[in-house]
Amino acid sequence: MEADIFEYHKEEDTHIESFHGEKQTFIQPTSLKDPKLEKLKQALVYWINSTLKAEHIVVQSLEEDLYDGLVLHHLLSRLAGVHVSVADIALTSLAQIRKLGLILEQLDKRLGLQDGSRIKWNVKLIHNKDLLATIHLLVAMVRAFQPELDLPQNVTVEVVVVEVSRSGIKSDVHTEVLTEERDAGSGSQSKIEREDPIEQLLKLEAHKVDTVKKAILHFVNQNMSSMGLQVADMDTQFADGVILLLLIGQLEGFCVPLCHFNLTPVSPSEMLHNVTLALDLLNDTGLQVSSVDPQDIVSQDAIATLKVLYALFKKHKGK
Questions:
Q1: CA dihedral 169, 172, 173, 175 (to 10 degrees)
Q2: Strand order of the sheet with strand 23-27?
Q3: 108 or 4: which carries more pLDDT confidence?
Q4: Which residues contact 295 (CB under 8 A, 6 or more apart)?
Q5: Neighbour count for residue 226 (Cβ, 10 Å)
Q6: Which residue has the higher pLDDT, 259 or 167?
Q7: Is residue 179 within 8 Å of residue 158, measured between CB atoms?
Q8: DSSP string, 69-138
Q9: Burial class of residue 310 (count of CB atoms within 10 Å of its CB; 0-12, 13-18, 19+)
Q10: What DSSP state is assigned to residue 152?
């Protein structure tokens, strides 16, 4: 019996010893409920799914869907043209960790992060489904590979850092920045140059904005006249997605089967289905519209609608 007790304490001491000097970081429960954090998570999920649509990969949860390396591997291949020689599906934990190590090594190189002190993620954190590390990694990838994409700005979370040492357990609370607020200083000049054309347009005088809107409206009606359709109000007539789908088909030279969308939508969900399909079709044709969510169009967001129509106008105006 005494020998058993001795062995028990020996194992317990060894277990505690393994955590000496280790720091673990947790997001405060109150921050997890922050709407700004939730909006950032949704934006990242939408970005991943849009980027990997051709691969038929659908992500629903940042915590649950990225830990095994499959999604990160496809993102690395799609965004940086780098294909790591690893199995597409890693079934065991050991295989997943090995795969993640190779992928993160290549990602860190492409992100220009050779200094390990600046990296806020690692194989262990990603594989353990650490939300904080996963978001830091994805935000860094967006900034590096698609800097024109507008993520929610100034998103911060309260985190608790716990450190185990021989003297006991220490904890500290601080604010972690996930995305910064963009400013107009000299350091942001490159961001200004990449600003969306519609955002630039809306800063001009009202009569100039009106001139561009009239030109886009004329372009739309020119292409819809053969179908006997006329658009008078750009802000409202695209909200249900029907005319938008028909316009895309007309410009791109294909017909969207009626069984794939609602020709006479009556509910917000049917409208959202139509608009989502329209934006997916645009993405499939290589025409990506930055920072436009399908719900924005359904909600009659004039800027979002104008961004989509301007993208079509710019691509097809010469035809």
A1: -130
A2: 23-27, 155-165, 168-179
A3: 108
A4: 272, 275
A5: 8
A6: 259
A7: no
A8: SHHHHHHHHHHH----SS-S---SHHHHHHHHHHHHHHHHHHTT---GGG----HHHHHTT-HHHHHHHH
A9: buried
A10: P
pLDDT digits (tens, 9 = 90+) for 263-298: 999 898 999 999 999 988 888 777 767 678 888 899
Q: Rounded to a whole number, what is the distance in angstroms from the first to the last CA of the chain?
A: 89
User: Who contacts 304 (Cβ-Cβ below 8 Å, separation ≥6)?
Assistant: 292, 293, 296, 297
Distance CA 219, CA 250 (A): 12
Q: pLDDT tens digits, residue range 186-200?
A: 344 444 344 556 666
Paired strand residues for 160: 26, 173
SS3 call for 21: coil
C-alpha closest to that of 82 among 114, 112, 53, 110? 110
Which amino acid belongs to residue 10? K
CA distance 41 to 62: 7
Report helix, strand or coil for 173. strand
d(CA 107, CA 80): 9
Quickly tell me which residue has 């109000």 as its tokens: 233
Instruction: List, in sequence order, every residue forming a beta bridge with 23; answer none if it has no partner.
Output: 163
Helices (H), the chain: 2-17, 29-32, 35-51, 62-65, 70-80, 93-110, 123-127, 131-145, 189-193, 197-201, 206-224, 234-237, 242-252, 268-284, 294-298, 302-316
Q: How far apart are CA 275 and CA 293, in angstroms?
A: 9
Q: Are 275 and 298 in contact (CB under 8 A)?
A: yes
Supply the DSSP symbol for 259. Answer: G
Q: Is the overall model pTM greater than 0.90, yes or no?
A: no
Which residue from 149, 186, 153 is spatially nearest to 51, judged by alpha carbons? 149
